Amino acid sequence: MRVYFFKSTTFCYNSKEFFVGSFMRELSSLGVKCSLIEPMQSMSAEDDSVLIDFNSVLPRQEGFAPGRPFYNYILDHPLYHHRSLNISLPDYHVICIDNNHAKYVRENYPHIKSVSVLPLAGIPGTGFKHTVFYNRPYDLSFCATYTSPDMVMDSINSLNDPTYIREIKDYIDALLWNPGMTLEEIFRRKHGEAMNPSLMGIAMHAMMPVDMYVTATYRTRIISALVNAGINVDVFGYKWELHPMYGAPNLRVHDDVPYPESAGIAADSRFYLNIQPWFKDGIHDRVFTAILNDSIALTDSSVMIEKDFTDGENIVLYDLANPEGIADVYLAKATDTVLAMNIAHNGLMLASKAHTYACRAKALIELLEASCAR
User: Fold this and answer.
1) Beta bridge partners of 318
2) How many CB atoms within 10 Å of residue 165?
3) Smaller CB count within 10 Å for the chain: N or C?
């Protein structure tokens, strides 16, 4: 088998380059031939070769005809990728990082030949200095971009369709009241189960501002709750000067760091915060990065998280329905150093066996072989 990875779009913090490089390295160690190519570059004629691109826009490009199995590895909710998913290619496959996302693609894009689930892994700590747990420079760190919900709402209010604005706000209210539900569940509750798949994809794509606003709101509230409780929070990423608590002495804003360097931040942190995007049956890679660097992942939950981890044993969970309660959750573990060290150690042991890119590469090979055989 040969796997071609595309050089196409660039992600913030250079994360895509890391994902591609990690998979290529681990696949190569397993005997899989890997190549990194430009989108329209010619390829050799192996019968067993496949193409993989992350959050791909290539299906929308005129003349894109892969001529072999093409895998779009989607790292966000599929509603953001409707224009690429809606294109019919002869041998089009999708990989998601959340089981709900996979279900959504299967139901609304029936031309997709196969849909699989494979979360990303964490960034290993090799090469980073791990300081003694109780002597690390950061109590609680968070590597992410900040988006102001007020700015998202301003953009919603600037739309020229009052009915559309009202519908967006209705969905926002519904998710804020029901943070355990997915947007598509709210949508089906309102419109019924029988909507034509092609219309469902278009309608959900129009609800992008809902996902953006709700995610930004919870990110704002979680950080505010921690800072208001007097907890030191070190944030690394873009636009944190827009957060309403900016300027508070215990909200310590740092420059953004390239994605691979976030492992060093985790290694220097006792707790590493994750605020999930709206993933209700998936896991963001921040969780795995925290745990692989002997830090404690402090995160809201999901079906997948609760299947793979145990709260208070190898991870610490807070309730998104009570974001202001995160401070008490954090302090209950942070003030017991022995307990905290045990949680970090247990997480590291688990993740080292199950959530590395070596593990994901093996799973990817099985996924590719199974889907290509269909």
Assistant:
1) 300
2) 15
3) C
What's CA 15's distance to the chain center, in Å? Answer: 11
E strand map for 131-287: 138-143, 233-236, 251-254, 269-274
Alpha carbon distance 49, 58 (integer Å) = 18
Measured CA to CA, the distance from residue 42 to residue 245 in angstroms comes to 51
Q: Strands, E, within the chain: which ranges? A: 2-6, 33-37, 49-54, 70-73, 92-96, 114-117, 138-143, 233-236, 251-254, 269-274, 296-300, 316-318
Amino acid present at 311: D
Kindly tell me the burial class for residue 180, based on how many C-beta atoms sit within 10 Å of its own C-beta (0-12, 13-18, 19 or more): middle
Provide the whole-model pTM.
Answer: 0.95
Name residue, tokens 């090799």. Answer: 126
Query: Are 282 and 101 spatial neighbours (Cβ–Cβ below 8 Å)?
Result: yes
Cα 237-255-247 angle, rounded to 5 deg: 85
